[in-house]
């Protein structure tokens, strides 16, 4: 978690800091094979050099960003759980429980989906 300490320390709200720390620790514990890094001023997890999931914060939510394919694949689950999202970002409000099960499924999907990918992002043409 040392990789993310500086990022977490920049969050003004201590409750939000705790949530971010908890979620990032959960990802680290659940997927110990993933590498931790800060890129584009955001905490991210990668696998064999390819992007798996990133996180960002705002006043209203903690967001995570898998590849667009992951969001598209789980579109029905996101809608059923009434989780705000776009094709590139999933927003979890601070005042609601964090959906770890869906996050786990999305990370597992991305790990599998990008197993043979050698670039950081999916190539432009899929």
Automatic annotation (TrEMBL):
InterPro entries: YdhG-like. Residues 16-111 form the YdhG-like domain. Pfam families: DUF1801. This is Iron chaperone. It comes from Pediococcus parvulus.
């Amino acid at each position: 978690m040392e990789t993310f300490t500086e990022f977490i320390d920049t969050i003004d709200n201590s409750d939000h800091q705790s949530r971010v720390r908890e979620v990032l620790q959960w990802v680290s514990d659940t997927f110990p094979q993933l590498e931790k890094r800060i890129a584009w001023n955001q905490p991210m997890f990668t696998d064999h050099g390819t992007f798996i999931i990133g996180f960002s914060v705002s006043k209203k939510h903690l967001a995570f960003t898998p590849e667009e394919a992951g969001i598209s694949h789980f579109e029905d689950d996101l809608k059923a759980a009434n989780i705000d999202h776009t094709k590139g970002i999933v927003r979890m409000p601070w005042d609601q429980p964090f959906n770890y099960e869906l996050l786990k499924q999305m990370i597992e999907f991305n790990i599998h989906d990008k197993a043979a990918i050698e670039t950081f992002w999916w190539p432009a043409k899929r």
